[in-house]
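Slide 14.
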Amino acid sequence: MKRQQAAEIKTYKTKNDFDKLKQYVEMDRKVLRFYAIWDDRSQMFGEQREFLIHYYLVNDTMEIREVHKSNNGRDPFPILITRHKIPKDRYDIKGTFPHVFLELTDTEINDYYKPSDLMIGKTINIYGRNFLIYDCDLFTKTFYTKNFGISNFESINTQAPRIEFAKMEIPPYNGFGSLEDSLQNCLRLQPERPKKDYVKLMENDHRILRYEAVLDSPREDDKLRKFIISYRLGDDTISIHEPPQRNTGIIGGRFLERTRVSKPNSSPEHPQFYGPSDFYIGATIEVFHQRFIICSADLYVLKYAEEHPEQFSSIVIESLRKHLSNELGRPDARLSTNIHIKRKPGDFIRLYAEIRNKLKHMRITNHEEIRQMFLRYDKDRNGYISRENIFDIFRQINLPLDDDLVDAMIAECTTNEQGKINLYDFLRFFDN
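Slide 15: predicted structure.
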């Protein structure tokens, strides 16, 4: 009986005088945006994650969205907490609680989050997660200035301090191998070869700048010694050869094997190697505590300098041009494709002898082998090869020639008006 009477008792709630229509008209489409972080690094595999908190002024609802970053290993789930009124202090649920239930009535909820609870620097607990608000957008700042009189909106730095890892110092050069080889031993557990610039090597293959030099020495016998410095443009290596001279008492030969040479003032940790622009008439080159003075150069050096003026200064090019013109006996000598150098009659005889010796070393002596060399370049099988093919053949047997020597050879062993050589003339040239 008492239970039935208690069930029939009606409860009444005082009507709220808050005008929801006015709130809808004034606050529609006005949203406060806050930037927050959830620091879960205290848990195993936890990390610091960024979120956006949207507070809708039209009905005091909130939603939380995660700021996704590329390659973070998570699916781009759009919303962490959907839009609804979020209560404050909902039984203080711990973050390890597996589920969240919203089966609460209005009488059990004491308070909801309001704009006054959301400020920069505050930490709010939303369903067991602590969110630190560290910044907000311009509209939110204007709203708080107008309604709460707040003018200080200094954002909080949430970036973790950068960890400075210890850097291993490279040990000094021990003298074994080249600098690049020794450096690879310090960079990897399994040493690898230093990587080469193969594009540069292919573009500048067989390009060699040759200079004549003398020793910068106080000894009289060293002043008479002459050296040939060869600079290879493919890999920036230098080799030095000393031609034998009669009655000097010094055996000539290889003075320096092919290697890269660093400048005297450079350190082993940051070496500066000699380049093409460091070689000019009168320059002093120090090679392993031996000083050489450049006193001359070949014609190809001037040709290369004129074709690549970005690597050489105008003073260097002019000094090479003046020096070589004095050696050739022509004050206006300039290297070009139509230069004519006076040759002695014995030069062509020496040319033929060198070609035959090269072919003998390559074991190309009978007519059949020479015919195979000819047919290798006669791809059209018209019975002729061009001037460029002759250059390729001489380059293949490592016999560098000047243009005038090749033109003289072609003029002597061919009767073709176009300057081409047939097989009969080709065989006759090597048989002479």
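Speaker note: The chain has three domains: 14-148, 198-328, 345-431.
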